[in-house]
């Protein structure tokens, strides 16, 4: 842990943003505001001054040989108190970032941005019809973002708008996320609501009873208000862990309950774990015209799968992929993870080579945080975790591989507090992009979550403010309270969509 002493600021609201920026450079940082200076590893002094409408900040990092003064400034004219604070925070953050860049020699390509969804910033400019060069310049100046990342975002947004030309008008519709919290076994690194299907967490059939109820009620509400569904996404857990009969009944319920199912632009079912895919389940998917599925190898190195507790073989992934193709699945996504324990450039190249033999319609490349990678390894001394440079090298390999094979990046998200300040990128063959992923990532539409652990996001039609609402994670709690949770969601929907109507 790096302790950084900050002098010259007293507002506690700066602590968290400064820690987030510090974490881009060091594994874990703590900002010392009031503690004695002697405890600190680094010492930063800020001088702030308001001259006219301008907020000027000077930062000095004592440990730098030559005294470095990094200035930030903000124009405070005609702003509310909240906006003034935001501007000051930005100016302080920029000064802080510049000092740490100089001290460590690391350059942060995302600048001071530590949020999960950077593309939203550029979307905002596009919606306001800011000329492109002006929008890019503002990202450079306001956040110190690099041209490389700005270009990546522009490429992604251009692709999104090509696939969904009416993206900015879709707030009058909704998307639906359906959470099925079961998996054959629990993987070591899993952070999702996922319970072993044969465990003691409450029976699958009573969970499905609750889920059918929610789908029916939400469907009734949508029909009554004449609101269409853009996309449906079955996630979890692994939605294909339930039996073929249960899947059949569930999709039948979807057809009976939801409005205009034939017009839904995309229905995806995650079939992440290849050990859950069977011919009869694939036939059920086909019966209901569900053609986008996700089969996730994560890695093609058997030893890695073993280390992370995934109880299936590499061959099984490949076999199930071919089986899905045989059963007519023509839009398959595969996930790879960079930075799994024991994996470096060589293993990742092997995964890319294997992917080349399959050529799924889309490939999502995730990066794992170092901390998480070492935590999830049962045998820590045996599995090394790649360092920052190697991780970056692997990301570059993914970029080059996808470009060479005509995949385009179409969504990205970042993770907070991880060394290397990385991003996860969804690549796809043209016109095979997942519309749900775009809707979810850009937060331009309400997403209603039903089922276990499903979170809903209600987007305020005027201000764009997001209200989150989560269903219980545990199947037993869900079974006891799904009626109450459905009522609460319908109340939130009424609130948001009556505003939309009164606009
Ligand atoms: S398959 Fe996915 S959801 Fe299921 S336990 Fe593994 S990581 Fe978690």
UniProtKB/TrEMBL annotation:
Cellular-component GO terms for this entry: cytoplasm
Pfam families, sorted: Radical_SAM
Highest taxon listed in the record's lineage: Bacteria
InterPro entries, A to Z: Coproporphyrinogen-III_oxidase (IPR034505), Elp3/MiaA/NifB-like_rSAM (IPR006638), HemZ (IPR023995), rSAM (IPR007197), rSAM_horseshoe (IPR023404), rSAM_sf (IPR058240)
Xref: CDD domains: Radical_SAM
GO biological process: porphyrin-containing compound biosynthetic process
Name this protein carries in UniProt: Coproporphyrinogen III oxidase
Organism: Niallia circulans (Bacillus circulans)
